[in-house]
Amino acid sequence: MTSILAPAHLLAYSTLLGTELYQSFVMTKVAYQALPRSAFTTLQKQVFPIYFQSQSLLLLFVVATTPPHGPITLVQSKADWISMAVAGLTAGLNLMIYGPRTKDLMVERVHQVSRDMKLQLEIGSVSEEMQKLNRSFSRAHAMSIHLNLITIGATMFYGWRLATKLRFEVE
């Protein structure tokens, strides 16, 4: 069992960290710069729920495969289980609360643009409803971004600790 856990753990951890870094710092930036706002919004509302689900599942898999004895080994090191708990909590908040809230507000803002167009507001003006939606969206989005950064930080901290435990044999 130990011989399976270590490689599975390293693959799960590296997939988790790679996914977090690539989605957060590469794909989001490229899509934002390359796509019109409506296409970017459509893409993000499809991608981020999958990202938050994958992130949470990978965190669970990392915990489950901690060598040599799975989660029992993880709880024996305070720094390790705390970093994974922080990552799990922040990823869970994005999965269950802030990701869906941000997505819903993003969609609602699109609908509000249509309603505002019917009101034929002056060019450059924004309805009171849109101002409220923008503030709510900004708060939810900022919270989601910060939670994601905390998750990445906790994941990297765990990875640093994991790397210090690696032992290589020369054959």
From TrEMBL:
Localization, UniProt: Membrane
This protein's name: TMEM205-like domain-containing protein
Main location: membrane
Domain TMEM205-like: residue ranges: 11-110
Keyword Transmembrane recorded: yes
Highest taxon, organism lineage: Eukaryota
This protein's UniProt keywords: Membrane, Transmembrane, Transmembrane helix
Transmembrane portions of the chain: 47-66, 81-99, 140-160
